[in-house]
Design a protein that fits this description.
With 168 residues, this protein is mostly helical. The chain is built from 7 helices and 2 strands. Strands 1-2 form a two-stranded antiparallel sheet. Helix 1 packs antiparallel against helix 5, helix 2 packs across helix 4 and helix 3 packs across helix 4. The protein is globular and about 55 Å long. The protein starts with 21 loop residues before the first helix and ends with a helix. 12% of the residues are buried.
Length: 168
Amino acid sequence: MTEPRPARSLPHAAPSPLFLRDQELTRGVELLDFAYRALTAEPERILDGLGLGRNHRRVIHLVARQPGLTLADLVDIVRLTKQSLSRTIKELEARGLIARGASQNDRRRRPLRLTEQGAALEERLNGGLRRRLALAYRAAGADAVAGFHQVLLGLVDERARRHIMSAG
């Protein structure tokens, strides 16, 4: 993986009072698309090499962020069918990346956690993303990062927003 470079300012980085014009909105769509592709290229290459996909990465990320999530919790967050998500978790479990525990209060609840091998894969998948974001955040400054987060939160649906807010 090549080392990410700090972002350069766009030619007209000053806030424009015309930010709702189609031209500016189209530019935002384009930037989101290019940023998404740049951020996901390396994790997707790693996943492809392991015979895993985006849903596997999402589960690994969410369980790393909130150990103890259950299948039912994840169904609500990732918007996959219970059957599809169960299959994804079983594949991760079979590879030794995720372990299911037993709840002390309710035997039906099986909290998920990453194994040591799963935590190492999570770092391979997301460590580079965190470093890239750190460089971009540092270059943009705290106020820009707060505004960026506000825009991103405005783009996600209510269910995802509740999860993000509860995860801290």
